[in-house]
Amino acid sequence: MTSEFLQPRPVRRPRRLRRSETIRRLVRETRLTPDRLVLPQFVVDGSGQEIAIGAMPGRARLSIDRTLAECERVMELGVGAFALFPAIDPRLKTPDAREALNERNLLCRAVAALKKALPESCVITDIALDPYSSVGHDGLVRDGVVLNDETNELLARMAVIHARAGADIVAPSDMMDGRVAAIRTALDAAGFTQVAILSYTAKYASAFYGPFREALDSAPVDAPDVPRDKQSYQMDPANAREARIEARLDVDEGADILMVKPALPYLDVIARLRQATDLPIAAYHVSGEYAMVKAAHAKGWLNERACMTEALTSIARAGADVIFTYAALDFARWFREP
Ligand code: PBG
After folding, report:
1. Ligand 1 lining (C-beta closer than 6 Å)
2. Residue 259, Cα to own-chain centre: how many angstroms?
3. In Å, what is the CA distance from 17 to each residue of 14, 278, 312?
4. Which of 91, 112, 280, 325 has its CB 3.0 to 4.6 Å from that of 321, i.e. a possible disulfide?
5. Is 261 labeled as catalytic in the residue annotation?
6. Whether the Cβ atoms of residue 174 and residue 149 lie closer than 8 Å to each other
């Protein structure tokens, strides 16, 4: 049968390589595996504690004993790296965040216990004051201003005590200028030349951090002389070129890994940094990104497994080598099932 609309026969037919699952797998450009994921984990004091987080179905604040059990289970499924965040007792939070410098604080005890129980794990600690601050900022606040250089001094001391507790990687998430250099200098002076710095290079002043701030009760407080948001230090969501400026500074200051955060709304920034440096790039698929998929799944509006896998694959495709995600355990399970 001949068509009256004679078409040229295409020589190139991309569909040839989409014909079967076996062929598709053969030519797949991005392969997501559990070993490039980092599971963020919230820790609380006490024992036998598991406190649900409303906006993060499936994730909970766990006491140290429960954290060890959870991390062991996760490692058996192929995820070996953990980012620990302490939910500090509100009575220990002060304007100067001094609990951050207590060598026996919850975070340091959790790091030491985890490295002792699971020496093969990679433990990443967050360097910022917000979990310990009664005003909910990443830096020291004076007269309505988040102080830069004074904060760096505390961050550098914090990094040293985390290293002493056994942290493999310290991750400054505070966005103060010059903090990577301050931390590198302090770590080296204390003999921790082997401890790596994963810098939150391009961390945006994002509304997607809501569920995380609920988990740690760490949002900026409504009080006189306390900035209501983090826009004077975290980046403006409208800016992409500026991420390259931050990246250059972090590389020069000695960062080992550069991170973009959040992930999905900033895939263009991940791709730009991938072009700008040969260092590994990390991306943080943040609490709000996780919550959206979980909420839509609970309503029967989206398929969680398909959407979460697509989201994480897209982050890897954009250029992230390492992905922080609350769905790490979910993905590791799905990865095993057909
Ligand atoms: C704070 C910090 C935040 C996150 C990681 N470290 C919140 C903030 O900047 O207010 C957010 C992570 C998430 O939303 O999953 N230093």
Report:
1. 126, 128, 130, 138, 173, 209, 212-213, 230, 286-287
2. 8
3. 6, 31, 23
4. 280
5. yes
6. no
What was the pLDDT predicted at 5?
A: 81
In sequence order, what E strands does the chain have?
Answer: 37-44, 50-52, 60-63, 81-86, 122-127, 141-142, 145-146, 169-172, 196-203, 257-261, 281-285, 322-325
User: Could you give the angle at the alpha carbon of 51 between the alpha carbons of 96 and 175, nearest 5°?
Assistant: 35
- Specify whether the CB–CB gap between 78 and 119 falls below 8 A: no
Active-site hit among 93, 115, 116, 203: 203
Q: What's the whole-model pTM score? A: 0.97
Query: Would the pLDDT of 285 be above 60?
Result: yes
Annotated catalytic residue 299? no
CA pair distance 333, 289, nearest whole angstrom: 20
Residues 57-81 have pLDDT tens digits of 999 999 999 999 999 999 999 999 9
Structure tokens at 192: 């921790």
Strands 169-172 and 281-285: unpaired
> What is the CA(208)–ligand 1 centre distance, in A?
9
Reduced to 3 states (helix: H, G, I; strand: E, B; else coil), residue 260 is: strand
33: which DSSP letter? Answer: -
Pocket test for ligand 1, best of 286, 292, 315 (most atoms within 8 A of CB): 286
Residue 286 CA, closest ligand 1 atom number: 15
Q: Collapsing DSSP states into helix, strand and coil, what is residue 284?
A: strand
pLDDT of 236 reads 98
Calculate mean pLDDT across residues 146-170: 98
